[in-house]
């Protein structure tokens, strides 16, 4: 999806109390004079049969076109809170091309009749970047997914099935792009069976467009001087949608959704009975996906082969998280930007709860940039906001860092560091998660709609309808044994060593990244790294012992990066070794596992069309950015497994899909010279 710089809303606030805010761009009011909440409750909630329609359901999803100042969301959230028969979880997906700046949102909500909810929304308001932002409220039971940008570009990119639609936005005469037929058709493709729709507009073109999209449209009484509004129900003459593409046909004709929606999520304080999901691996990746599944109400079993969670690189005493930026805002930059903002939300909450770390800023040096002015030009071209990233010249960067730096830097206010092991333990502490260590999974098999996980002796160690392989380089052998046609992904495994010492205050106040990284250690000291060395030759054992030569390499890089010098006594140098896994395109491997041999006649030229192993997922190859990526990717897999709205747009999901190399092979053609099928060849580098 091609992104465009976000243009924040221009808002004219009324001179007198009670005057509705107005958009000078569209020449229209944000809501009628009867009040935003009264309008929202009559038009959108009552027009969609809410709160009655969500009663007793596990979850309910609303999709709004035109988030505006958030009043429809606040009214819906308030109705959900007030309803004793409410759904267990409410998902609210909203699109907005011109979102308000935080200060304007605070001003607009200053007199809200729902002051606590309004304050919570303002506090959670994200940086205005062209991303899908996930904001969680009420312990994650209410989730707002806010897509910033053009509605026509965003709707095809969203993976959501909406139970109710709120068509809001400025009038069709002043904002026709919001109401064009292709937008209305896209809404039909996002509708769940029996979905309803409401809007204050009764324009003939709108009603005709909705009818073409499969909605049966009627009129209902209006409010605030408006005689009528439009309401609708999704009743297409034929269902244009295909079967879900993330589930494989099963000989037993079992249901095709990834995980059928339970009538009601379990409420036990601890997992009881069979698990809903099994996660293999208790490192950063496994903890992130287990936590996300548990938040959605699933009972999760985590299997770890080591004696304790957070081994390998997840056991490092500290690690960084931060965003990325490049001139063309391609998939890497967009993915890492979205991931960094989700990571900031996750880690800031964990740090506030006592996990060691800081989420108050990080500097990334840019020695390749000629000067700060050139960096600022890139930033202004993309219109990225200062609460996401700023450009600092050498003097300003040095002031932030507390030490003299030689050049300009990108400053990420939401970046920082956290102790990985402590975060993993906190993430796995949910009462819905059971962790079993010392369990080595050696095989997978699917029987009667459930996955059976076996040890080396063939004994079943766990079973569930959903399995997530988050065990780094241990995932591929399991998939190869499961499906003989599976071809290994082009992954590289590297050895990395960090260096740290304590007791000496270096003066460094913020983490610094660039050619290597450095983070100030609490109480004095520093952690730096990391080396990157190729995997040892086949048959040679891994060497997990820190090497003096690698300490010296880390310290030389630290000096080039920051000018800092380590204590002279090598006895004070401490180190730790871990292994990273990275794909050839430097993107993670994450999502539902495709069948290695696709059914005859199926399309293989797009990742989203591949037929999948039902209920089987993988999350691996996070490389050196695992801390940044894990919280978002864990939520993506949880959404895919439960059928809830995906927190990432479709083209970025395609970019990290486990089947992307199958797609690339299919696009090159069905066979190579000599008539050999592409499927028999190794992946290209």
Question: What do you see in this structure?
Answer:
With 685 residues, the chain is α/β, with parallel strands linked by helices. Helices cover 26% and strands 24% of the residues. β5 and β6 form a beta hairpin. α6 packs parallel to α7 and α8 packs parallel to α15. The C terminus is likely disordered.
Overall form: globular
Largest sheet: 9 strands, mixed
Give the C-alpha Rg: 26 Å
Report the portion of residues in β strands. 15-25%
Helix content percent band: 25-40%
Q: Given the helix and strand composition, which structural class is it? A: alpha/beta
Work out the number of β strands.
Answer: 31
Separation of the first and last Cα atoms: 25 Å
Low-confidence stretches: 247-271, 671-685
Mean pLDDT: 90
Number of helices: 17
Concise summary:
By secondary structure, the protein is an alpha/beta fold. It is 26% helix and 24% strand.
Helices and strands in order:
Blueprint: E1 22-23, E2 28-29, H1 36-45, E3 59-65, H2 71-82, E4 89-96, H3 102-108, H4 115-124, E5 132-137, E6 142-148, H5 151-154, E7 162-167, H6 181-189, E8 191-199, H7 204-212, E9 215-221, E10 228-234, E11 277-280, H8 284-295, E12 300-304, E13 319-321, H9 331-352, E14 357-358, E15 362-365, H10 372-382, E16 390-392, H11 394-401, E17 409-412, E18 416-418, H12 420-427, E19 433-437, E20 443-447, E21 450-454, E22 460-464, E23 466-469, H13 475-482, E24 491-502, E25 512-514, E26 516-520, E27 525-529, E28 533-534, H14 548-562, E29 574-583, E30 589-594, E31 612-620, H15 626-642, H16 650-655, H17 660-668
Helix pairs in contact: 1-2, 6-7, 8-12, 8-15, 9-15
């Amino acid at each position: 999806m091609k992104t465009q710089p976000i243009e924040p809303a221009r808002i004219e606030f009324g001179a007198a109390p009670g005057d509705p805010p107005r958009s000078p761009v569209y020449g229209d009011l944000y809501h009628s004079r009867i009040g935003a909440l009264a309008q929202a409750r009559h038009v959108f909630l009552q027009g969609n049969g809410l709160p009655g329609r969500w009663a007793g359901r596990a979850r309910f999803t609303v999709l709004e076109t035109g988030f505006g100042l958030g009043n429809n969301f606040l009214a819906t959230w308030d109705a959900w809170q007030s309803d004793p028969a409410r759904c267990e979880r409410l998902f609210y997906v909203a699109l907005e091309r011109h979102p308000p700046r935080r200060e304007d949102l605070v001003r607009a909500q200053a007199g809200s009749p729902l002051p606590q909810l309004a304050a919570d929304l303002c506090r959670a308001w994200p940086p205005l970047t062209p991303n899908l932002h996930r904001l969680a409220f009420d312990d994650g039971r209410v989730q707002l997914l806010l897509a910033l940008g053009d509605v026509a570009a965003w709707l095809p990119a969203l993976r959501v099935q909406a139970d109710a639609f709120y068509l809001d936005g400025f009038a069709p005469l002043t904002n026709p792009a919001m109401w064009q037929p292709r937008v209305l058709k896209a809404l039909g493709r996002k509708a769940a069976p029996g979905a309803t729709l409401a809007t204050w507009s009764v324009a003939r073109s709108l009603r005709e467009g909705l009818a073409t999209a499969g909605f049966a449209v009627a009129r209902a009484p209006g409010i605030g001087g408006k005689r009528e509004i439009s309401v609708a129900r999704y009743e297409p003459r034929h269902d244009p949608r295909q079967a879900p593409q993330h589930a494989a046909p099963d000989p037993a004709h079992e249901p095709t959704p990834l995980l059928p929606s339970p009538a009601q999520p379990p409420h036990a304080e601890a997992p009881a009975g069979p698990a809903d999901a099994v996660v293999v691996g208790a490192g950063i990746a496994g903890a992130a996906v287990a936590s996300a599944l548990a938040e959605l109400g699933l009972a999760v079993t985590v299997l770890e082969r080591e004696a304790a969670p957070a081994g390998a690189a997840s056991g490092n005493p500290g690690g960084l998280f931060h965003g990325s930026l490049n001139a063309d805002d391609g998939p890497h930059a967009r993915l890492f930007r979205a991931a960094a903002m989700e990571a900031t939300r996750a880690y800031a909450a964990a740090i506030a709860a006592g996990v060691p770390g800081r989420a108050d800023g990080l500097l990334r040096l840019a020695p390749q940039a000629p000067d700060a002015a050139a960096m600022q030009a890139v930033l202004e071209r993309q219109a990225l906001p200062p609460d996401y990233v700023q450009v600092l010249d050498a003097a300003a960067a040095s002031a932030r860092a507390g030490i003299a730096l030689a050049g300009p830097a990108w400053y990420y206010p939401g970046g920082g560091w956290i102790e990985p092991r402590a975060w993993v333990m906190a993430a796995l502490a949910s009462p819905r998660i059971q962790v079993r260590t010392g369990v080595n999974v050696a095989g997978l098999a699917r029987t009667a709609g459930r996955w059976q996980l076996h040890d080396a002796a063939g004994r079943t160690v766990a079973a569930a309808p959903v399995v997530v392989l988050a065990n780094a380089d241990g995932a591929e052998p399991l998939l190869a044994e499961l499906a003989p046609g599976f071809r290994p992904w082009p992954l590289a495994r590297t050895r990395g060593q960090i260096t740290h010492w304590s007791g000496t205050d270096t003066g460094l106040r913020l983490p610094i990244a660039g050619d290597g990284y450095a983070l100030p250690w609490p109480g004095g000291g520093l952690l730096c790294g990391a080396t990157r060395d190729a995997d040892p030759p086949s048959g040679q054992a891994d060497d997990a012992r820190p090497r003096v030569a690698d300490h010296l390499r880390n310290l030389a890089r630290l000096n080039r990066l920051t000018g800092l010098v380590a204590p002279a006594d090598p006895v004070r140098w401490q180190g730790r070794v871990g292994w990273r896994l990275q794909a050839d395109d430097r993107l993670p491997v994450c999502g539902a596992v495709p069948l290695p041999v696709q059914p005859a006649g199926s399309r293989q030229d797009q990742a989203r069309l591949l037929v999948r192993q039902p209920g089987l997922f993988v999350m691996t190859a996070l490389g050196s950015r695992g801390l940044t990526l894990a919280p978002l990717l864990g939520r993506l897999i949880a959404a895919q497994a439960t059928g809830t709205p995906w927190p990432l747009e479709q083209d970025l999901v395609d970019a990290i899909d486990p089947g992307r190399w199958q797609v690339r092979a299919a696009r090159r053609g069905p066979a190579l010279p000599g008539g050999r099928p592409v499927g028999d060849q190794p992946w290209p580098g």
